[in-house]
Amino acid sequence: MDLYFLELFNGSNSLFLDRFAVAFTTGYTWIPFYVSLAVLVIKNNKTMGQIMLIFGCILLGVLASGLLSDYIVKPYVMRHRPCYDPELKHLVRIVEGYSASGYSFYSSHAANTMMLAMFVTLLVRGKALSPMLFLWSLANGWTRIYLGVHWFTDVITGLAWGATIGVLVYLLYRKFSPSTKFISSRYTGTGYDKNDLDACICTMMLTVIYCFFRVII
Questions:
Q1: Tens digits of per-residue pLDDT, 87-127?
Q2: If 0-12 CB within 10 Å is exposed, 13-18 middle and 19+ buried, where does residue 153 land?
Q3: In the prediction, which pLDDT does 180 show?
Q4: How far is it, in rounded angstroms, from Cα 132 to Cα 106?
Q5: Residue 157 has what pLDDT?
Q6: Confidence (pLDDT) at 181
Q7: pLDDT for position 96
Q8: Predicted local distance difference test score (pLDDT) of residue 78
Q9: CA 76 to chain centre
Q10: Which of 37, 52, 86, 91 has the fewest CB atoms within 10 Å of its CB?
């Protein structure tokens, strides 16, 4: 199965897709979006304790999803990345010279993005933002296979683990945070201003547009 999906998704004859995938998967690309999410949390929570609780849960989620992979699971499993696999690396198309260090299982990119997507979805309950977050995470998973740095099962495992951690840290957040419900056309059910959600969506869309411009620059 891994080899099938690697052959299906790894690289292409499209220079556009090659450059887009590299731009999309680069962590620095998404800093403006992460800042917009931080602003969303700060503007829509009244106390510093509430804000720090949310940021603390996100940090805990990152530790339990991505860093667990990088520092415990990958060194223990020691699975070669497709581009480094001694038996199969000749089948892997290296895209734009992109590579990644360390072992392959499981994808911390997939785990971290899905953890964030799940936690923010449960926290904010934005009808437009939520599906975009999940599509963003899935697209990040696709880039890892496309670039030949992860197997399909690395990505699927990362997505599943990230979703699980996202739910768990949200439950932890709810344990220490009072439950509130808003019934208003201006706010989501959990009290987040929809205009602030629109700002996050716009930032995400502008970042994708930036990835397109990176292709032609």
A1: 777 778 888 888 888 888 889 999 999 999 999 999 998 88
A2: middle
A3: 67
A4: 23
A5: 95
A6: 64
A7: 80
A8: 85
A9: 23
A10: 86
What is the rounded CA–CA span in Å between residue 64 and residue 53? 16
- How is residue 85 written in tokens? 């696999």
In angstroms, the CA 89 to CA 27 distance is 25
Separation of alpha carbons 162 and 113, rounded Å: 7
Tokens 């992860």 map to which residue?
A: 150
Q: Where do the H-state alpha helices sit in the chain?
A: 2-9, 15-25, 31-43, 48-62, 68, 74-77, 108-124, 129-146, 152-176, 194-216
Residue located via tokens 């739910």: 167
Beta-carbon contacts of residue 141 (< 8 Å; ≥ 6 apart): 107, 109, 110, 113, 114, 155, 156, 158, 159
Produce one character per residue of 158-183: b if its CB has 16 or more CB atoms within 10 Å, e if not: bbebbbbbbbbbbeebeeebeeeeee
Question: What is the 3-state composition of the chain as percent helix, strand, coil, each rounded to the nearest 5?
Answer: 70, 0, 30
DSSP character at residue 104: -
**pTM of the prediction?**
0.92
Q: Give the pLDDT of residue 158.
A: 95
Amino acid at 2: D
The ranges of the chain with pLDDT < 50 are none
The Cα–Cα gap between 191 and 110 comes to 28
Q: Is the dihedral of CA 19, 23, 24, 26 positive or negative?
A: positive
Q: Which residues lie below 8 Å from residue 142, measured CB to CB, with a gap of 6+? A: 9, 21, 155
The encoded tokens of residue 154 equal 């690395």
**3-state DSSP assignment of residue 106:** coil
Of 212, 193, 153, 188, the residue nearest 42 (C-alpha): 193
